Known about the structure:
Order of helices and strands: EHHHHEHEHHEHEEH
Structural class: alpha/beta
Helix content: 40-55%
Radius of gyration: 18 Å
Distance between the termini: 13 Å
Largest sheet: 6 strands, parallel
Shape: globular
Number of strands: 6
Amino acid sequence: xxxxxxxxxxxxxxxxxxxxxxxxxxxxxxxxxxxxxxxxxxxxxxxxxxxxxxxxxxxxxxxxxxxxxxxxxxxxxxxxxxxxxxxxxxxxxxxxxxxxxxxxxxxxxxxxxxxxxxxxxxxxxxxxxxxxxxxxxxxxxxxxxxxxxxxxxxxxxxxxxxxxxxxxxxxxxxxxxxxxxxxxxxxxxxxxxxxxxxxxxxxxxxxxxxxxxxxxxxxxxxxx
Length: 224
């Protein structure tokens, strides 16, 4: 099968995952910046990853803080923490990222991580040149309404690439759902943290690494 383009999730696909402790540190720093010095552990955890607008609104109401201000502080703090992990080599590209050299079609990235985090990582590791478009979340509450499993950012990436067909590669059910809502095929990549994951959604492809993606995409250097 041939695809016009391939679009990738970032964390858990191109780069290793961010340690959960780092997410907790970022969320706690955001509370502290807005004057909440002793937030409950449950609230720190809720604001660390997988944040939803209802959760954000409810928790900010309890502490009488503005959701937009808090979320911007949260994203900025998480970017700072992740930059430190990247510099220390604790968050880095998977060993097969060089396989992207073999793909001879437009490539994109759609990430639910912070825009500034992704931009820093791609510059630090010098992998941004692989991609014709990169979409990640802005530090706004609106970005939560647009993130996967909604297809918004995938559709923006496809518009940038000028394609109507693509393969989206991700490591979460939300990636598979977002791809299908955008009307394109999906590939679930089984990095070490997903080896035994059982899905409630059905991807079009189940792959173990980027070499499989190159084979499935069909558009690779040296192909007829």
